[in-house]
Amino acid sequence: QSKRKWFCVILARPYKSSQSGAAAGGGGSTWCGSVRGETKMSQQAANGDRCRAKVLTVETMNPNVKRVEYAVRGPIVQRAVQLEKELKQGAKKPFTEVIKANIGDAHAMGQKPITFFRQVLALCAYPALLEEEKFPEDAKQRARRILAACGGHSIGAYSASQGIECIRQDVSRYIEKRDGGIPSNPDNIYLSTGASDAIVTMLKLLVCGEGRQRTGVMISIPQYPLYSAALADLAAVQINYYLDEDKSWSLDVAELRRSLNAAREHCNPRVLCIINPGNPTGQVQSRQCIEDVIRFAKEERLFLMADEVYQDNVYAEGCKFHSFKKVLFEMGPEYSSTVEMASFHSTSKCFMGECGFRGGYMEVINMDPAVKAQLIKLVSVRLCPPVPGQALMDLVVNPPQPDEPSYTTFVKEKTAVLAALAEKASITEQAFNTMPGFTCNPVQGAMYTFPRISIPQKAIDKAKELGQVPDMFYCMKLLEEEGICLVPGSGFGQRDGTFHFRMTILPPTEKLKIVLQRIKDFHLRFTQEFS
Amino acid sequence: QSKRKWFCVILARPYKSSQSGAAAGGGGSTWCGSVRGETKMSQQAANGDRCRAKVLTVETMNPNVKRVEYAVRGPIVQRAVQLEKELKQGAKKPFTEVIKANIGDAHAMGQKPITFFRQVLALCAYPALLEEEKFPEDAKQRARRILAACGGHSIGAYSASQGIECIRQDVSRYIEKRDGGIPSNPDNIYLSTGASDAIVTMLKLLVCGEGRQRTGVMISIPQYPLYSAALADLAAVQINYYLDEDKSWSLDVAELRRSLNAAREHCNPRVLCIINPGNPTGQVQSRQCIEDVIRFAKEERLFLMADEVYQDNVYAEGCKFHSFKKVLFEMGPEYSSTVEMASFHSTSKCFMGECGFRGGYMEVINMDPAVKAQLIKLVSVRLCPPVPGQALMDLVVNPPQPDEPSYTTFVKEKTAVLAALAEKASITEQAFNTMPGFTCNPVQGAMYTFPRISIPQKAIDKAKELGQVPDMFYCMKLLEEEGICLVPGSGFGQRDGTFHFRMTILPPTEKLKIVLQRIKDFHLRFTQEFS
């Protein structure tokens, strides 16, 4: 502890450039600038050539990175973490706990892991446990199979860069079963470090060209900000198409076409990204809509990216998850042998919610074999996805079967999680729709609600005065006053003049009800304060 | 199985474009081209506008990705995997097993995991085991502490994007202890998905500018190809400086200066990458050399990237690992408060060799606070490094202490691994230096030997005829004839006209001796065949 203090003192002492000149030898250029706090470039530049700023400054860093934004973990979350620390240190706040409903982090919200999955993972981590009678045979069998596929029978060995072969085979079998027998080839499966990794890799492959020939990528608004962040990083052109809030956030091909035609004037649109079930908007696409989208992609020569990480999270009556792959193949060979597509899945969502393991996969369809070779080369640079995450992905796609000892518990746990989520989806929607100043579409699927909120003109003016967007001002105030951490709609994109926030439905039911009540109270106060 | 066959038949059938026109609706553009096999663009383009190639082809993909090369997992490794499959299917080969000495993958080569690490990981994965008496108390205590730092006490929750705070604190304490008390600030620690992830992220931050102002990055030749791959991907300028093979692959500042001055004519050199202990060359830098490098970096205004993932792997007498940070701080505040640096570490190497977990960290020194904010934003897009890998990193930096029950076993296991590696380093060097046509520097550290081999002119001509570089031709032939998988020196870079390969020293001693004997036999045969 005393060392830490000394460190701060040393670094806080302004560095005197006069000390350095001679000792620096040869080139003789020297630097100055405080290490903590702001770098005062302009002031120091005035001190003359021999006194220079740092090599790496915001002015001289990668400009694409500067353009990246990621609201789900943005300033409001940083403030939430700070508030938690203040509470721990005994600070008095109008709340005793910060509830982080900003991110789909199931376990952090109290959801329990699936027992079978964790048993197998423990067996893989410490194979001496395979001798223990306490573990069920099916868990041991799964662990033995995974270990047999690992170099030296250890999950500490690198795997093939594309992922462990028998796991890719299991993924293919899962997809075939899910899609009613439509074949899946393990060579088309790429395991990944969460779905995010695969999405970024796929976008990276797709981006090329300069100026008006630069690749354009169509994304929904509201969107999941991984997409806008990756596009900024890759200096690709983001093409917005708007979901229809008045029709339960549905996707309309006419809007896709409008958006595409507008974009063709300044870039080369080549990719269409879809999130189904929707994040942050929670809609579940109809089969008809998916067919329309596929037809559009074919006509307009767009590579389809289908983000299907919420495929088990469908709650609303009459809604069903249809995979893009299944619909594509049902449309006949004219489509199934031509439309290029990648579909993404993850261990982080659905009923398992195992975000920390960073497991995921993508399946590519109709990808040029020469491009596949380039893709394998690209993923090999990062060596391999985390093997525990690969193992977990295997368990998700190859869970206990009816004749196996862990089946009953597994089904019970899985069903309970999904039933609770369905209940919370309904509670949330109903609560918001009875609050004055709120309108909320049904949470048909996924893990979020994205209600529209009315913000009084005086609050909008106040936000402007503070240099904040109005819904950021709203959410920040909600955090400070109620300890509830949400993400402003502006972080996902929304039609001008409308305001929203994203909230997960993950808190335990009783806590969720409290959260909803507090939001209601806050909104009332907020509206009164600014009217 | 029958489904798979059907799939192949469908896809192998050439798609007839005449079927599609009408059904496609609206736009009316259609595609053609075989799905498997080569896309014959030019031929099809001749069929007219209505018959087009795929959206994503090698011609229309990201050109930076095309320039990426990664020899450690390149064509020779793909052939090795194929050979393994053929052997399994009963094919007759001049060998019964493929030995993959191409990559530093300790567990795959039979090295056993450290018991304590795996016990804690099993406890973290399946906390019900905390009730078991079989696990030692110190393992339980570590697991409880890690779980307490996880959201919902689960390693399935996302962590902070920079990594779990108490683990970053442990990393700082480890660095302080390693460096004789020089302070380390947990805010400067960023946990990562293996060291590769952190290295790529750091390079990404640093690259900017266009044309002659494009960022240049100095890397050693021979190098670890992650660097050249990342630079190609980022379209940065690679600046080569050569290690001195005649002086045990040492680094000479005069060569750094030569290389830098030459590069200044076509780019803006801003970064100097060092790997110590060296990969693939196994040298350990002297304290004096590190001081010279730091002085050079300061004079020339270069951001230092110190890849120190082999910090425990030092074998040669008289050699010692000196961290760049420690030397930097010992040079006084003129250096320690100005030179910008990042140092990288990993769970994959040293005595643990846990590659599959993808754990790692970087420590940044003197980084502009505004850039740090950008860095945190950037890593937040990928949400967080895998939590099991973070947990493992924690155990590496916070292993059992002398008063804890697991201490004796831990020290015994760690010492045994490092002693075996030291023995194998020596065996390897001695063996190569007694083989005609080989010269081999001492393997002072790391996990590889990079011997120089003589290749007869006739073999060079034969390789040219086949369109291969000569050492690739050599290594491919070695693989086919002896089942030994190495990486050609050309994958790492070498002086023109010299030839090398990289081989890990990881195989168990008895197997290593067989490998060395087979290489000797092969080399003799090869030399005779081509002379």
From TrEMBL, chains A, B:
Record organism: Gouania willdenowi (Blunt-snouted clingfish)
Keyword terms, alphabetized: Aminotransferase, Pyridoxal phosphate, Transferase
A GO term, aspect molecular function: L-alanine:2-oxoglutarate aminotransferase activity
Lineage of origin: Eukaryota, Metazoa, Chordata, Craniata, Vertebrata
Protein name as annotated: alanine transaminase
Pfam families linked: Aminotran_1_2 (PF00155)
Gene that produces this protein: si:ch211-217a12.1
SUPFAM superfamilies: PLP-dependent transferases
Pathway of action: Amino-acid degradation; L-alanine degradation via transaminase pathway; pyruvate from L-alanine: step 1/1
The enzyme's E.C. designation: 2.6.1.2
